[in-house]
Design a protein that fits this description.
By secondary structure, this protein is mostly beta strands. It has helices at 10-29, 184-188, 191-194, 212-224, 235-238, and strands spanning 37-44, 51-55, 71-77, 80-87, 121-128, 134-140, 144-145, 149-153, 176-177, 180-182, 240-243, 248-252, 269-271, 273-275, 281-285, 294-300, 309-312, 323-326, 331-335, 342-348, 357-361, 366-370, 376-380, 391-395, 404-406.
Length: 407
């Protein structure tokens, strides 16, 4: 069984068989001779920042930031048993508060803690007992999917589950949670979906008996992400082995800049932005003013330039973020502060982090996070659908007033 509870699968094998076998071998024969170092390369192919976590904390104390288009390579001393995942929307708190995959620790460093359930995972059991000649690995969405993940193995004779497209844009009803598509187990925590309690065997836990909506999660994963785990007893699809000595490349958003909820990255250009809590209303520069600090609200769509927003990620820092400017000049959407409840207003474009917005695809569109605090989302105050309601930066909560469709 490849359930994502690390203690039930990979970690048990490390703390039990591997640890005991290594102790006996070292006591009788000295250090084993077939100890390898496995190279792990991680690539962020998404159109947004990803904050990888690793458990145990074998690299950079367990966590770091990767801007769009960057990569990092490090070595793991075998045997090694653990997981790697990619968080979304982390802020500068300590520990960092993230929209998905949040761990403990210090800042972005998970420091030996694991992420909360709901995130995509890569799991390894490298050079494991009893023979110490085999690697066990998988890509797992048993808890949910935030970033699609590809895993490429350097040994061409071994399976590389390297292709995956996000399903979050078509996440089955009831499973969407902001930029995360939760698995039925994570969403409902029942024995039936988690293969636990009375349903903790392959004979008693049968995905084929689940309601159609929940079966759709599994089917969508299998169709979009061949060779990856979609539910706890998905071993025949997701579990892979390879002779020890191979190296591995993990790619967030392997199919390109899609991911983090599905869809593709936003092409630079002009858009109208519609909040999903207020059909017929759109993001609006109040009275079409370019005065510094002019308020931003929602207003009935009228086709004016005050409701047309120009996206550009050219020379924006952090890489992959966007400036969002009103159509009639270099005046940018600006988070007036970095705390929850800070109003969003219009300011001359100045390259500041308050004007750099991360676009994270969600179940119905995108959420937008300011770089000065990526745990905040572009938010319609009070979830109101009344015209002239102001827009703010608010702690991300997955509400429809934080989901924006671009037209």
């Amino acid at each position: 069984m490849k359930a994502q509870q690390l203690g039930r699968h990979l970690y048990c094998r490390l703390s039990g068989k591997i640890t005991l076998a290594l102790f006996v071998a070292m006591a009788v024969f000295g250090t084993p001779q077939n100890i390898f170092a496995t190279d792990i390369k991680i690539v962020n192919n998404c159109g947004y920042t990803v904050y990888p976590g690793i458990y145990p904390a074998s690299y950079n104390n367990g966590g770091w930031q990767m801007n769009a288009g960057t990569s990092v390579t490090f070595s793991l001393s075998d045997p090694w048993n653990g997981r790697i995942w990619g968080r979304i929307g982390c802020d500068s708190s300590s520990p960092a508060i993230c929209q998905t995959g949040q761990c403990g620790g210090t800042g972005l460093q998970c420091a030996g803690t694991t992420g909360v359930k709901g995130t995509s995972l890569v799991e390894f059991n490298l050079d494991y007992s009893p023979s110490y000649t085999t690697d066990d690995y998988d890509v797992s969405y048993v808890d949910g999917m935030d970033n699609p993940i590809g895993l490429t193995v350097s040994n061409s004779s071994c399976v590389s589950p390297s292709t995956c497209n996000s399903i979050v844009s078509s996440c089955p009803s009831g499973l969407a949670n902001g930029p995360d598509c939760m698995s039925p187990c994570t969403a409902y925590s029942t024995d039936e979906f988690c293969c636990s309690g009375a349903d903790n065997t392959p004979a008693t836990c049968q995905e084929s008996t689940w309601p159609a909506n929940d079966q759709a999660y599994v089917n969508d994963i299998h169709n979009a992400c061949p060779n990856d785990y979609a539910w706890p007893y998905d071993d025949s699809v997701g579990n892979h082995t390879c002779p020890t000595g191979a190296d591995y490349t993990i790619t967030f958003c392997p199919s390109g800049s899609s991911g983090g909820g599905g869809g593709t990255s936003i092409a630079n250009g002009s858009y109208v932005m519609n909040p999903q809590n207020a059909p017929g209303l759109v993001l609006d520069d109040w009275q079409g003013s370019t005065a510094s600090g002019n308020q931003i609200d929602i207003w009935p769509a009228n086709g004016s330039g005050a409701q047309t927003w120009v996206f550009s990620n050219v020379n924006v820092q952090p890489a992959g973020f966007y400036n969002i400017a009103v159509s009639y000049g270099a005046y940018c959407l600006t988070a007036s502060g970095s705390s929850s409840g800070s109003l969003v207003n219009l300011q001359p474009c100045n390259g500041s982090s308050a004007q750099a917005w991360q676009a994270v695809p969600s179940s119905v569109g995108y959420t937008f996070n300011p770089a000065n605090n990526t745990s905040l989302c572009l938010d319609v105050q009070g979830d109101s659908s009344a015209q002239e309601t102001l827009v703010q930066a608010w702690t991300c909560n997955g509400g429809n007033n934080e989901q924006w469709v671009l037209n």
